[in-house]
């Protein structure tokens, strides 16, 4: 009995020593210098749960806020099984963004990498070639030249269609309805896909093409019940649907032009062997995902903010009414022209301010490929660096009264705020190529909304950061076309 007890004590001792050693090693990772301050949390779990603690406003999520207060603008942590250095230092961010391929490389953490994976490639095809193909494709079809020459009319037509439908409903949940509008628009541009919008299931769209931002920092556990499992299953369904569209197009009358992006890709498939069906369908999927959730969320936030800020809404409306009046003077009943779009100055301030507060991209992630020295600290090679646009956008030294929705601030900030302090669309070699397109879609949407419609809030509009921006109860509105609004207004006044 006594012997058993000694053996048990011995095991217990070894176990405690083992655990202590593990905890010590975890908390003091190897580094050829001094690591930035911060905590690595518990072995394996790190500070993942703290990272995801909700914030109930547009303000910085609690984990980030506390970390910055305690350790400053650069601190270490561990999230989703990886060592991470979080940066809110504009100078360091700018430096890192411009070091792609030299000191850092693009890195989406383990979970997101699985969902952005574009399948198997011949070993002769480099990752750079694949990225280059995607970037060129997006630039050609969503870049500034195409916007000017081609995209204004289809965007306007789609927004008008959807807003008209909204106005026939008793209540509209803004974000879900926007998800289906942006899906519809992107599907039209990608593969000329006409959906019957009255039939389109909003929740189906949101299920298949959204929630990818959520899995950015989750554990790479692909088992039933996890976020990653759901995301991969949804991706599989969506990619299969897109492969079906590709096959159908190939079977259809050869050489018939549809004028969409799929035509272009099918043409490229004849010359480029790496363009497999799987790659093409996954690329379409990536473009749909890049469009749907970020654009819908940004516009939804703009509507919430405008509803809460009547003076901003009034100035916005004045700008757009002036465009309509000038059309009347010139006797034109045209659709929105490029010059009109370019004249929407206050609108561009509203859009910048919405993007600044929305912080759609919570973190811009890179992996250090060499040890990086910064302010006396060393970020070891292999570590993840997370640039947090939210922390820059809500820094009171850069944006006065940062939580206020104040589009007028952009009048004075101008382009000086653009490169280091405005990170909504990333920067450097990895900068977003859909940025101009997103701005245009938002401007057209706001133009049609404020000149043709009036709306009133029914319920919702609460905002949380998980750290991704979300509207937990949705934002429900009743929207009227101007003519019927005037009647409704009269009825209310006469009462
Ligand atoms: C509100 C909407 C959007 C936001 C906030 C946004 C944000 C970003 C950010 C922050 C990056 C840099 C990512 C990184 O460095 O890791 C990026 C890259 C990119 N985005 Fe967007 N984006 C938006 C919409 C779009 C749209 C609509 C498209 C396509 C039409 C698009 C296409 C791209 C592409 C091609 C890249 C470069 C990817 C690469 O080089 O690997 N984005 N975006």
Automatic annotation (TrEMBL):
Molecular-function annotations in GO: heme binding; iron ion binding; monooxygenase activity; oxidoreductase activity, acting on paired donors, with incorporation or reduction of molecular oxygen
Places the protein is found: Membrane
Keywords: Heme, Iron, Membrane, Metal-binding, Monooxygenase, Oxidoreductase, Transmembrane, Transmembrane helix
Family the entry assigns: Belongs to the cytochrome P450 family.
Cofactor: heme
Chain sites annotated for binding heme: 432
Entry's Gene Ontology cellular component terms: membrane
Protein name as catalogued: Cytochrome P450 87A3-like
Source organism (scientific name): Nelumbo nucifera
Entry's transmembrane regions: 6-24
A Pfam family: p450
PANTHER family, alphabetized: CYTOCHROME P450 26 (PTHR24286), CYTOCHROME P450 708A2 (PTHR24286:SF305)
């Amino acid at each position: 009995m006594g012997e058993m007890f000694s053996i048990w004590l011995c095991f217990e001792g070894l176990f405690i020593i083992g655990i202590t050693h593990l905890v010590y090693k975890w908390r003091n990772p190897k580094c050829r210098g001094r690591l930035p301050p911060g905590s690595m949390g518990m072995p394996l779990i790190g500070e993942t749960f703290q990272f995801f603690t909700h914030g109930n406003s547009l303000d910085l999520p609690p984990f980030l806020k506390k970390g910055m207060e305690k350790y400053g603008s650069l601190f270490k942590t561990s999230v989703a099984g990886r060592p991470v250095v979080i940066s809110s230092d504009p100078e360091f961010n700018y430096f890192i963004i411009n070091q792609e391929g030299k000191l850092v490389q693009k890195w989406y953490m383990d979970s997101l990498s699985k969902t952005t994976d574009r399948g198997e490639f011949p070993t002769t095809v480099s990752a750079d070639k694949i990225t280059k193909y995607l970037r060129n494709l997006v630039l050609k079809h969503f870049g500034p030249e195409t916007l000017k020459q081609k995209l204004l009319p289809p965007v306007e037509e789609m927004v008008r269609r959807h807003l008209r439908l909204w106005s026939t409903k008793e209540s509209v949940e803004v974000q879900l309805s926007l998800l289906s509008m942006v899906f519809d628009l992107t599907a039209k541009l990608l593969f000329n896909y006409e959906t019957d919008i009255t039939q389109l299931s909003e929740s189906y769209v949101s299920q298949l093409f959204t929630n990818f931002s959520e899995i950015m920092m989750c554990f790479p556990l692909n088992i039933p019940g996890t976020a990653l499992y759901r995301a991969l299953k949804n991706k599989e369904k969506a990619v299969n649907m897109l492969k079906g569209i590709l096959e159908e197009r190939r079977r259809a009358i050869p050489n018939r032009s549809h004028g969409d992006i799929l035509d272009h890709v099918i043409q490229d498939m004849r010359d480029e062997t790496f363009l497999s069906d799987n790659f093409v369908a996954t690329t379409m999927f990536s473009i749909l995902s890049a469009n749907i959730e970020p654009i819908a969320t940004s516009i939804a936030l703009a509507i919430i903010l405008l509803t809460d800020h009547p003076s901003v809404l009034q100035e916005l409306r004045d700008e757009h009414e002036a465009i309509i009046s000038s059309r009347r003077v010139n006797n034109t009943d045209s659709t929105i022209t490029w010059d009109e779009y370019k004249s929407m100055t206050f609108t561009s301030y509203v859009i910048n301010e919405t993007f600044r507060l929305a912080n759609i991209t919570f973190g811009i992630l890179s992996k250090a490929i060499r040890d990086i020295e910064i302010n006396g600290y060393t970020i070891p090679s292999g570590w993840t660096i997370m640039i947090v646009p939210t922390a820059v956008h809500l820094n009171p030294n850069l944006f006065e009264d940062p939580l206020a929705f104040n589009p007028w601030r952009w009048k004075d900030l101008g382009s000086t705020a653009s490169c280091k302090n405005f990170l909504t669309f990333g920067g450097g070699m990895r900068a977003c190529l859909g940025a101009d397109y997103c701005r245009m879609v938002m401007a057209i949407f706001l133009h049609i909304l404020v000149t043709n419609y009036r709306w009133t809030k029914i319920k919702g509009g609460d905002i949380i950061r998980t750290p991704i921006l979300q509207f937990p109860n949705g934002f429900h509105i009743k929207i009227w076309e101007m003519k019927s609004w005037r009647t409704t207004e009269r009825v209310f006044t006469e009462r």
